[in-house]
Amino acid sequence: MAESSSISNPDANSNLSRKRRKIEPKTPAGAPTETGRPRWQNDVEQQIYSLKLVDALCHLRRPDSAAATSRAVRDAADQVLAVSARGKTRWSRAILTGRLSLRLAHINKKHKKAAKRAAVGESRTKKPAVQKKLPPLEKKVKVLSRLVPGCRKVSLPNLLEETTDYIAALEMQVKAMTFLTGLLNGAVSSSAAASGDSSLADRG
Amino acid sequence: MSSRRSRSRQSGASRISDDQIADLVSRLQQLIPEIRNRRSDKVSASKVLQETCNYIRSLHREVDDLSDRLSELLESTDSDSAQAAIIRSLLM
């Protein structure tokens, strides 16, 4: 554990100093080749994530106070998580490019729907050769591939690898957000208590 | 159907061996708390996949709940005190 933290510390420093950094394609020298759970279970990584998330959330609030919807928070959290992956995994790249292609997908969907209605298309299946009897295992693999972003057409071993990384990242996300929620809860209640106390003091 | 062993479905360059898949499934198995706590070595691959999907879905739901709460909290507090509180706690 000490080993991993000592390796990731230089990353942490460079991360904090360059907040707006894009994903760099090359891996930093000395980074561990095994990018699985140890990376996401690192406390330092979690703290960095919390800081970046707070930064992103505060930027959300500035232009328009009504923008802090739950969906916006979730999107920001996913974005920051994907950035923390440093472009090494497919799901993170899918999240980051997802926002760009989301609007295109919407437009495409509308065009497709109009075209279908005009042609009264009967073949709604995407694949021409539909296997009726998918073994239950393959069905589950399909479901899993839909849950992990960007992994619909990925081979099975890659999918399983992406899944392990994705699960570890999600766990870290949950931990960091729980931590932030607790902090904000404390901040809100303490400020409320402070204002309550001062009003009491005035009366007393 | 039993002769559908051919992995030509997969677009990978090499044939994927059962051993490889078994190895990855066992790795996945370690991650999922449900299966980890049961401590049985004979969990089938289908069970592992099922539990994985359930676990990911529950994690998604947790993140949604947390972002609900976070958005509410952000509404009621100003960003300066929030940031100050967070940085303070992270530095200590």
From TrEMBL, chain A:
Residues 1-16 have a biased composition (Polar residues). Keywords: Nucleus, Transcription, Transcription regulation. Residues 121-170 form the BHLH domain. It holds the Pfam family IBH1_N. CDD domains: bHLH_AtIBH1_like. The keyword Glycoprotein does not apply. It is found in: Nucleus. This is BHLH domain-containing protein.
UniProtKB/TrEMBL annotation, chain B:
It is found in: Nucleus. Its main location: nucleus. The keyword Transcription applies. Keywords: Growth regulation, Nucleus, Transcription, Transcription regulation. InterPro entries: bHLH_dom, HLH_DNA-bd_sf, PRE. Residues 5-59 form the BHLH domain. The keyword Cytoplasm does not apply. It comes from the Eukaryota. This is BHLH domain-containing protein. The lineage of its organism: Eukaryota, Viridiplantae, Streptophyta, Embryophyta, Tracheophyta.
